[in-house]
Fold this protein.
Amino acid sequence: LQLSRAYLVLARAALLNFVSLKTFRKLIDFDDLIIQTHELLSSSKAHLERVRRELKHVIIDEFQDTDSLQW
């Protein structure tokens, strides 16, 4: 149990460092890309309409490991 707790503390510190570094360097990862796109298109009707108007087709590469947000 002590070892598991130590791993959790280490993992949490690594995650917080990763998020902090991404923010500092103004970078995004794949999950951020999905989440930020969803937030933008959900909150802005103008952006959503522009995407609908301009994108006729979307190519999906490696259709695997998808979750509901990706749909």
